[in-house]
Amino acid sequence: MNDSVEIYLLNQLDDPRGYCIDIRGYKLKAKINRGLQAHTCYSYQGEISVDQGFDSIKLIKNQFFMPSFNVCMIASSITASANLKLGKCDYSKLQKFEWSNKGKIHPIGNKKLCLTVNQGQSKQGGGGTPVHLMRNLSLEFCSNSLRPFQIWGMRGV
Questions:
Q1: 144 CB-near residues (< 8 Å, 6+ apart)
Q2: In sequence order, which residues have a C-beta less than 8 Å from that of residue 99 and are 6 or more positions away?
Q3: One-character DSSP codes across 62-100
Q4: CA distances from 48 to 72, 77, 81 (A)
Q5: Which of 15, 25, 52, 146 has its CA 20 to 30 A from that of 127?
Q6: Verdict on whether the full-model pTM lies above 0.70
Q7: pLDDT tens digits for 72-87?
Q8: Which of 139, 125, 153 is nearest to 15 (CA)?
Q9: Which fold has domain 4-155?
Q10: Domains in the chain: boundaries
């Protein structure tokens, strides 16, 4: 698991711990059938959480693979407002994402779309001190006005 990284939004928005791509649910009890969200990053606890851990080697190959659950990130479609799901890795076009050198994550099938954190109000999660925060994730048109919600980084612990 030492190749595991978390993918975090560079703008911390309303949570100083930052937002990471996360499976809905809690750590090993995460529900892969409920898809992905932006959630308070767990790295402040000293490790990459299983429900936020991506394989850094597969990211280079445009595959967002979560080894603890043996699933890949999938766009529900390659259109604006599409949500992000998880499923068996099959290298289909809905699973191929490119990380641009500007920090944007695009579906390879439509580079005008960016992985975007919802700019609305965050929701409180079930734990953490202070309480963890959650926001929806979707594909939206890349734009300067949404830039704070569309620029991502990657880190280990």
A1: none
A2: 59, 62, 105, 152, 154
A3: TB-EETTTTEEEEES-SSTTB-EEEE-----GGGBEEE-
A4: 17, 28, 28
A5: 146
A6: yes
A7: 999 999 999 999 999 9
A8: 125
A9: Trefoil (Acidic Fibroblast Growth Factor, subunit A) (2.80.10)
A10: 4-155
